[in-house]
Design brief:
With 179 residues, the chain is an alpha+beta fold. 35% of the residues lie in helices and 31% in strands. It has 5 helices and 7 strands. The longest helix has 16 residues. The protein is globular and about 45 Å long.
Length: 179
């Protein structure tokens, strides 16, 4: 179990990303994202199960993101992480706006003492914004997933319209706010 702060997309973009999850599931490549109750997202922060005072984390999330308007990202490329989890992803072109919002949120987390539980992969200097397509699969299926996506994926604009505090796995939405 852990917690994540995720940014979520407009309905059209969410449906498009879910369709990619469905294709990966139907082709017996990776079913986890399609079946675990998640919404397509980019994680801004991930915290371990020892995180204390989840209500305080909700307050930080609400306060920070109440100052942010919906904004667009352009999903433009595919990638994978060279780990044993089999993560393949669709990623947005990195923009100054996206990086500034992420770093600003990280600073709020640090200023409020939550950095002790913060996953290092999500720190500003190493964070790779992405929307997971494959996870909990073999390396072979990870590569099959990238190949399937390479043949079907077309770059598109998505609007980030809400932010969620999620307990995982499976995904349980504890707080969702509209931007």
């Amino acid at each position: 179990m852990g917690y994540a702060i995720e940014v979520n997309f407009d309905k059209k973009s969410e449906d498009m990303l879910i369709e990619y999850w469905r294709l990966l599931c139907q082709n017996n490549i990776s079913s986890y994202m399609y079946k675990n109750g998640a919404h397509p997202h980019i994680a801004f922060a991930v915290f371990d199960e020892k995180t204390k005072d989840i209500s305080g984390l909700k307050n930080i999330m609400n306060d920070y993101f109440s100052r942010i308007e919906p904004f667009e990202v352009i999903f433009s490329y595919l990638g994978l992480f060279p780990t044993n989890e089999g993560v393949g992803f669709i990623a947005p072109k990195v923009s100054r706006q996206l990086l500034e919002y992420h770093e600003g949120f990280f600073n709020e987390i640090c200023n409020n003492g939550y950095d002790a539980w913060f996953n290092d992969y999500y720190k500003p200097d190493v964070w790779i914004p992405h929307c997971t397509m494959t996870i909990n699969t073999t390396n072979n299926n990870q590569m099959k997933g990238i190949e399937l996506l390479r043949n079907t994926f077309k770059p598109f604009k998505a609007k980030i319209t809400r932010v969620s505090l999620v307990e995982f796995f499976p995904s349980k939405y504890l707080e969702v706010i509209e931007l």
